[in-house]
């Protein structure tokens, strides 16, 4: 299991203070936690399950679990990572219950040096800035398996480090790099076939 990625001392202090307030039952503390991280929870769950009704229920389940187990947060990594880990776990179990594979094929860790060049392939940020290309991009992302969709979202939208993603998904860093590289290649092919050229 990878070590938690370093978070700033200020972030950890603020996270610990919020958790202490929740544990002490301070009015509005848990609501503040929910407001702070409901977008993150939605991104993780929605990317995994791709069903709005299920996403709403699973986000509620995730925050119920967070409320019940917040005493387990040790403050060794950012609260954001811990919340994302709970959301991922809830979504993953939901897919397992429905017998929906989170990956279509098992990807081994890719030792190719190309995997280190995560910027190869499609410029996701640049593509998202163009409305027409963005629509094609989101459709292409939706066609990816749940785990790859989620890794892309955490890496690009939530701007999480690979070590952070590895910690919350339980997937090795090398495998995550491999998924990112392969996903970007798939997105490039999809954009080129629909738009003509990928940015």
List keywords for this structure.
199 residues; Rna Polymerase Sigma Factor, Chain: A; Butyryl-CoA Dehydrogenase, subunit A, domain 3; 2 domains
Description:
Mean pLDDT is 82; it is low at 106-121. Helix content is 67%, strand content 0%. The protein is mostly helical and 199 residues long. It is built from nine helices and no strands. The protein is globular and about 55 Å long. Helix 2 packs across helix 7 (146-157). It has helices at residues 9-23, 29-49, 52-69, 79-97, 124-129, 131-142, 146-157, 162-169, 173-195. It has two domains: 9-97, RNA polymerase sigma factor, region 2, helix turn helix motif (Rna Polymerase Sigma Factor, Chain: A, Orthogonal Bundle), CATH 1.10.1740; 113-195, PhyR, sigma-like (SL) domain (Butyryl-CoA Dehydrogenase, subunit A, domain 3, Up-down Bundle).
């Amino acid at each position: 299991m990878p070590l938690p990625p370093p978070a700033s001392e200020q972030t950890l202090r603020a996270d610990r203070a919020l958790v202490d307030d929740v544990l002490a039952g301070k009015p509005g503390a848990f609501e503040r936690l929910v407001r702070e991280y409901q977008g993150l929870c939605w991104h993780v769950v929605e990317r995994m399950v791709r069903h709005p009704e299920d996403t709403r229920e699973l986000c509620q389940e995730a925050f119920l679990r967070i409320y019940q187990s917040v005493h387990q947060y040790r403050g060794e990594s950012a609260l954001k990572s811990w919340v994302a880990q709970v959301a991922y776990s809830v979504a993953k179990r939901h897919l397992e219950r429905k017998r929906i594979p989170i990956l279509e094929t098992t990807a081994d860790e890719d030792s190719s040096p190309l995997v280190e060049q995560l910027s190869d392939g499609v410029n996701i940020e640049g593509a998202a800035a163009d409305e027409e290309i963005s629509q094609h991009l989101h459709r292409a992302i939706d066609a990816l398996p749940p785990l790859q969709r989620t890794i892309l979202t955490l890496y690009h939208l939530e701007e999480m480090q690979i070590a952070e993603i590895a910690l919350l998904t339980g997937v090795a860093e090398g495998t995550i790099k491999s998924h990112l590289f392969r996903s970007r290649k798939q997105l490039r092919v999809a954009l080129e076939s629909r738009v003509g050229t990928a940015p």
